[in-house]
Here is the input.
Amino acid sequence: MEQIEEARIDAAQSVRAELEGKLSELLRAQVRSAVRRHLTNHSPVRRAGAWLRRAGELLSGERPPR
Here is the structure.
């Protein structure tokens, strides 16, 4: 009986370790994706482009100042 219980504990521990490893991989991939998306949406180049576009519109009189 004791051997069966030990075998169950060992099996449960190995399954848990495997699941924790897979979860860790998934979380790492999600974080990587979120960081990449954030950097794409909030890049300094994009911000500078928007600023220059706005400045051009103001200088040309296309758009009134805010």
